[in-house]
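Exercise 7. Given the encoded structure of a 205-residue chain, write a plausible sequence.
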């Protein structure tokens, strides 16, 4: 497994009580960006779903996690999605929950320089991530590389560059990193128009 150079986080999550308010204040914008992609109405997950299944937003057939990061962590050349991989409490981590089958998608957003809204974002298909990790375990592909991120008081994350996972990004407003939307999802002109209005780049099916 290739581990890229470490980065230290200064403003990212420490405990659940701190994590959720940090992300929740941007949840209305996250929902506004995600709903046109999935074509369904999303709601905020319960605390139980959040803590046990790494889920922040729910909809029909959807359990979406969200992570909001500061502007200084934005990598335009090689976007990443992040998963928490350690807690000082030793509790089951977000990475472990995802690999055990929790979550359908992960929304990662980066704030603008002013910090008042999400400027860049992507939605990753966690099924693709799990499949690629399983293929690596079977020796069918190289181990995915990641960047270890260290938060305060023992919290750790892994940032996985999305370019090493074919088809993982279903929508984004980064240039040319997304794949066509989920197979079987209805893609109406209205949905595509809403998505483009939000700043996304969407490939035609």
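Solution.
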């Amino acid at each position: 497994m290739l581990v890229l150079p470490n980065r230290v986080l200064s403003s990212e999550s420490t405990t659940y009580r701190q994590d959720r308010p940090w992300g929740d204040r941007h949840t209305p914008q996250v929902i506004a960006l995600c709903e046109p992609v999935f074509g369904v109405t999303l709601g905020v997950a319960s605390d139980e779903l959040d803590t046990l299944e790494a889920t922040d937003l729910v909809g029909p057939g959807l359990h979406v996690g969200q992570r909001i990061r500061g502007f200084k962590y934005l990598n335009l050349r090689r976007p990443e999605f992040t998963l928490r991989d350690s807690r000082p409490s030793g509790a089951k981590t977000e990475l472990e929950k995802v690999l055990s089958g929790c979550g359908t998608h992960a929304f990662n957003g980066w704030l603008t320089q002013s910090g008042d809204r999400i400027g860049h974002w992507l939605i990753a298909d966690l099924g693709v991530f799990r499949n690629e990790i399983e293929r690596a375990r079977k020796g069918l592909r190289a181990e995915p590389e990641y960047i270890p991120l260290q938060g305060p008081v023992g919290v750790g994350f892994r940032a996985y560059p999305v370019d090493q996972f074919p088809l993982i990004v279903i929508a984004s407003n980064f240039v040319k990193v997304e794949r066509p939307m989920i197979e079987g999802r209805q893609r109406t002109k209205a949905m595509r128009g809403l998505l483009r209005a939000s700043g996304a780049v969407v490939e035609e099916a």
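Remark. The chain is about 25% helix and 25% strand. Students should compare their own answers with the one above.
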